[in-house]
Amino acid sequence: MEDWSHCLDVAVQIALRAGQVVQSAVKQEKQVSSKSTPTDLVTEADHQVEELIISTLREKYPSHGFIGEESSAAGVTCELTDDPTWIIDPIDGTCNFVHSFPMVAVSIGFAVRKELELGVIYHCFDGTLYTARKGHGAFCNGVRLQVSKEKDVSKALILTEIGAKRDPATLDIFLGNMKKLLSAPTHGVRIIGSSTLALCHIASGAAEAYYQYGLHCWDIAAAAVIIREAGGYVIDTTGGPLDLMSRRVVAAGTRQIADYVVKQLQPINYGRDDLT
Ligand code: IPD
Question: Which of 92, 97, 171 to mutate to test the pocket of ligand 1 (most atoms within 8 A of CB)?
């Protein structure tokens, strides 16, 4: 088995550098535009940070593949092959970034033969660094992470994100799903505006479950390794194995809570990352 520890070290250094760029950009005037929908935002900083991350990694690993949020938005094919591939969200929580709402992260995942091998997520506002490598545990600022072992959904805190579609039919399903999970009853449902950081809260045990329709492979890749290495589950909303390109996910500390969430959800169709 190949040792990818050098890739983790490199990813950490780049995430920290990228985080510094985000920290300084957040204080400046932002040039904001939209992508797939009026609420799917992008800024100059998203492009700048993605370029920094990909060019640095490409110099180090010229034979590796790259999937990046802004490259994909610009038309680069989003295809996961067997090649070692970096999966990058330069600024996760772009809407938060635009408003200086302090939930913004740099996310770098890495897959080999379509298997997720490592993940690094850097919280740009508070400097928290989440890291994991398959088979070697998950850490937050060097301290080992452990998911919540809660099995009783009535004691669960659930996280979700809205996704970019806001048409009435989509919102009805979104709110219906949330209503079912609130009326279980659970302790509550939270939306923080960054899917990667929400998923890190599952890894740290601060919340019991996460579900979403409409996120992308770059929102899940790094976080999936971190959650699994912290002892948790990252699966499809149907209850089957995670399909990284499917734009849907359920994550939880225990299989019991994951299964409960799966049973409550009515699907929202966002298509696939590898078909756009
Ligand atoms: C988005 C955020 C948002 C979630 C979207 C993501 P971006 O990422 O995580 O909370 O609802 O599905 O795509 O566009 O800020 O990188």
Answer: 92
- Return d(Cα 46, Cα 262) in angstroms, integer: 33
d(CA 226, CA 216): 17
Alpha carbon dihedral 177, 182, 230, 93, in 10-degree steps, equals 60
68 lines ligand 1 (CB under 6 A): no
What's the confidence (pLDDT) of residue 176? 98
Band (pLDDT 50/70/90 cuts) for residue 248 is: very high
| Single-letter amino acid, residue 213 | Y
Of all atoms in ligand 1, which is nearest to the CA of residue 92? 16
Reading the block at residue 72, the tokens are 């994909």
Helix (H) or strand (E) holding 248: strand 248-252
Instruction: Quote the CA–CA distance of 237 and 239 in Å, as a whole number.
Output: 5
